[in-house]
Amino acid sequence: MTRFLFHRLWQSALVLGLMSFAVYSLIGLMPGDPVDLMITADPKITPEDAARLRELYGLNKSIFERYGNWLAAALSGDFGYSRLHAKPVMEVIIPALGNTVTLLGLSFTLALAIALPAGIAAAYRPYSKTDYAINLAAFAGISVPPFWLALMLIIVFAVILGVLPAGGLGTLGAGGIWENTRFLVLPVASLTIASIGGHTRYMRAAMIETLRQDYIRTARATGAGEVRVVFGHALRNALIPVVTIIALDFGYLFSGALITETIFAWPGMGRLIYDAIMGNDFNLALVALLLATLLTLAGNFLADVAYVWLDPRISFREVER
Known about the structure:
Helix content: over 70%
Order of helices and strands: HHHHEEHHHHHHHHHH
CATH topology of the largest domain: MetI-like fold
CATH architecture of the largest domain: Orthogonal Bundle
CATH class of the largest domain: Mainly Alpha
CATH superfamily of the largest domain: MetI-like
Number of strands: 2
Strand order of the largest sheet: 1-2
Distance between the termini: 13 Å
Structural class: mainly alpha
Shape: flat
């Protein structure tokens, strides 16, 4: 266990370091820099002033030197300031991260709570009417474009019926819990419907494959009840490939849903990263993207731990390989 933890921490640190350099380099190749933006805002800045500013901010150095300076500051806890918000980067990211966790966490939980039982029900009687109905609903959810679904929900529930707000974020403490929750209903519903289909199909495929195994037939032959066979023997093994998909979604959970957040004017990580890139806010975009990378690595680590818990035959040494 200790060796596994050390190995994964070392791997994660290496991936995060390489990712930080790659993202820093790509952002550095973007046209324009903070000094160019200053010149655009104040045409009176002379070329000599611009050269002095670039020297002051270290923009005249090579990208390796600039990255080294940024990395040294980041390791000491200084992630710089956001140019767009005129605040330290972490003061901007933390509220947006909280909004994204609230929105995507609710939709992710609801999607799994619906998709996993639906996939099990479809797999238990494959090619039955129940299976066809669940597959039809799953394919419909997969096929509907998220932006179209979001717009339809707004038109129906906000414009025609007028029972829910079209977007925005409720004010904490104003109007009570329900008044603030009303702003979450449409974006959560949009993300939940869009993700149910994929998880249902994954669960169905894994469960069908597991129910065909020899040990399932042996369990039934020994007189085990169907509930025990399905939930005691088949489900834990069927969840192993599904856990991999859930782990990949873990990073997406914290990086935001750009289209949904934009349509519903939800101030989450997706919009924050997009606005930072479009506004040449290098520090904010870099730290936000690295945070999403870090949480994706954390999701993969939790998935490896879940493999060992779901199947006792798997050891940490095998996962490490």
